[in-house]
Amino acid sequence: MLLTGFSTFITLLYVVMLVLAVVALIMAAMAREDAYRAADKQKKSFWLLILGIAVGVNVLSLYMSVLFLQIAGVVASIVFLVDVRPALRAVSGGGRGRRGGSSSDGPYGPYNGGR
């Protein structure tokens, strides 16, 4: 009975790692290429490759044990979601909905055309 509960927990953990990698991959694919350069992060193709490998490893883990690679994929997904994605949103203006502002806002406030 204990082994069945542990097996269910491990399966749930694998599913959570897979979902995390898929969400990070989708968010990386939706961001613009120039936002990566403006945020001074790695190229978009780099993140798509790393996160795509993470998704592949997580899918592969359903058939064989590759725990070390899964942990590396989770770390890459977390780094993307915690570090890269906020930087991309900051340079592409993704956070305007919550903070207010307009399309003429610069980094130090609104631009009024020299008035």
Topology:
Layout: H1 2-30, H2 33-38, H3 44-60, H4 67-92, H5 96-99, E1 105-106, E2 109-110
Antiparallel strand pairs: 1-2
Helix pairs in contact: 1-3, 1-4, 3-4
Q: What spatial form do the alpha-carbon principal axes imply? A: elongated
> Low-confidence spans: pLDDT under 50, at least 5 residues?
none
Number of strands: 2
Note the total helix count: 5
Binned, the helix content reads: over 70%
Strand line-up in the sheet with most strands: 1-2
Sketch the major β-sheet.
2 strands, antiparallel
Global mean pLDDT: 84
Strand content: under 5%
Following the backbone from N to C, one meets helices and strands in this order, namely HHHHHEE
CA radius of gyration is: 19 Å
Ends distance = 74 Å
| Derived structural class | mainly alpha
